[in-house]
Each structure stands twice: as structure tokens, then as C-alpha cells.
Amino acid sequence: MTTDGLSRIFAALADPTRRDMVARLSAGDATVNQLAEPYQMTLQAVYKHLKVLEDAGLVSRPPGPQPRSVRLEMEVFDLMDKWIERYRRQAEKRYRRLDAVLARMNDETPNDIEEQKGTTA
Amino acid sequence: MTTDGLSRIFAALADPTRRDMVARLSAGDATVNQLAEPYQMTLQAVYKHLKVLEDAGLVSRPPGPQPRSVRLEMEVFDLMDKWIERYRRQAEKRYRRLDAVLARMNDETPNDIEEQKGTTA
DNA sequence: GAGCCTGTCAACCAGAAGGTTGAAAGACTC
DNA sequence: GAGTCTTTCAACCTTCTGGTTGACAGGCTC
């Protein structure tokens, strides 16, 4: 089950059509018909994609007159960013530490290998 | 078809198990058995997940002695980051422009509204 | 109110995804 | 070289997904 937020977000963006919708919505709100226009698929299919994006929080549909608009929501990008940055930073830190260890190993005699104990999980 | 890179990446990260693997690998390389240990699933299933991550470029399996290690690859994070930032920035720019228009429209209000741009987290 | 466009819902279908079991090939240890 | 551990392949099952068609409700305009 893709019940948690990030799963829904990543799953929503895994589809090229939906990524394209996001890309186009970043340039401005659009009606469903405008959104659907470039794609070779039924309007119902577009609605389904829209629902996926909406459930993921990537898009909202503010109430209004009949040709309702679709709007990109940006908070979700922050969520993704936080997730990515967290692990990227952690991995980078780890690599820097490893580099330091390797540099020290090169400098000194090769039998200081026990220093690895801190870097290998 | 999830043939392009970003689709594969997002699809790979849409699964909580795989995100958890990425999270744990960011702390250090691991063998498949170590990776599999916390999960209630067969080793074959873990290999399948690993293959998805590998095909997405999120993970590599450098050659070596038999309990081969799994390593997190970070270039992919840059790709995602670029995608996210691109549309986020575009949408932000658009909102700022919209704010400016709105501010001009009700010209009664002074342009204190511009201060809002610093408060958007 | 009739008609038309917009927006939804439900049923269905084909294919992909996540998981299982079973078998088998490689690599390491003794 | 026998035995064990690691890795992979193939078949199968079930659920999810992306798409279709068809029907139908909500609003707008005449």
C-alpha cells in the first residue's frame, strides 16, 4: 500500500505524463481541457492522472466557476527536497570521512587498517 | 513505459522498502544479507528491490569478494534536485509576479506585501 | 426547460509491480 | 571435491496502474 505521503508523491511523479503536467502547471494554472489537449488520451484518463497528483498533494483544484482551474502546490517540493538532502548530506559526509581515511592510509604505513573500523558499517 | 531515467528513479523511490534501503545505505555500504535483515520478506524479493534501485542508478554493486557490498550512488540525487528546483523556481517566480500584479491591482494597499517574499519557507 | 460543455463515477481490461516458491549457477572454505 | 553461502533465474499469484468505454450529475446559455 502506498499510504504514506512520500510514496504517493514519488509514485505520482514516476509517470511521464504527470511530470509533464507538473512542468506545464509550473508555468501557470490551467483547466483540465487545456491540460489534456496535448495528450493522446481520453479526458477521463487525464482526470485520473489529476486525481493521483491531487492525492499526492502536488496539485489543488480551488473551487470556482465551471471551467475549474488546476493549480500546482509547492509545499510538496519542500518535502521531497528535505528527503533528498537528508540522505545526500549523510552520504557526502560519509564519503568525506572515507576520503580522509584513505588519504591517511596512503600517507602512513599500510598496516593502520584498523582505522577502518569507524567507516564500515 | 517507464523507460526514461527520472521515471525509473521516482518509481524506485515510490516504494517504502526501497526508500528505507536508500536511507540505510546512506549511512554506509552493506551486504545484501545485512540489508535484508530487518524486512519480513524473502531474500529474492530483496534482490528484486535491489535490481530496481540499480536500474535507476541509485545503487551500485562494486565487484569484489563474495558477500558483495551495495553502495549508494549520489549522482541521481543531483538529477532529482535539478528537476525539482527547476519547476519550483519557475512556480515561485510566477507567484511573485502574481503577487506583484495583485498588489498593483488594489493600489490602496502600500507595497508592504513585498515583504512576504522573505517569509515563504 | 433543452442542449451543451465540464466534471465524475463505475466497470472493465491489459500489463506492470511486489511478493512467493523452487531450482540452479558461482564463489568461498574445509 | 563436498558443502555451504551468495546470487540469480523462472514460474506463478495477487494487487495496483494506466487506459478504455459508458453513463450520469452540475452548471451555463439560449
Protein architecture, described:
With 121 residues, the first copy, chain A, is mainly α. Chain A has helices at residues 5-13, 16-25, 32-36, 43-55, 75-107; strands at 30-31, 59-60, 69-72. The first copy, chain A, has 2 domains: 5-73, Arc Repressor Mutant, subunit A (Orthogonal Bundle); 77-118, no CATH class. Chain A is built from 5 helices and 3 strands; from the N terminus they run ααβααββα. In chain A, β2 (59-60) and β3 form a beta hairpin. In chain A, α1 runs antiparallel to α4. The first copy, chain A, is elongated. The first copy, chain A, starts with a helix and ends in a 14-residue tail after the last helix. In chain A, 19% of the residues are buried. Chain A binds chain B through residues 2, 4, 6-7, 10-11, 13-16, 19, 22-23, 25-28, 72, 74, 77-78, 80-81, 83-84, 86-88, 90-92, 94-95, 119-121, and chain B through 2, 4, 6-7, 10-11, 13-16, 19, 22-23, 25-30, 34, 72, 74, 77, 80-81, 83-84, 86-88, 90-92, 94, 121. Chain A binds a DNA duplex (30 and 30 nucleotides) through residues 1-2, 11, 15, 17, 31-33, 41-45, 47-49, 51-52, 65-68.
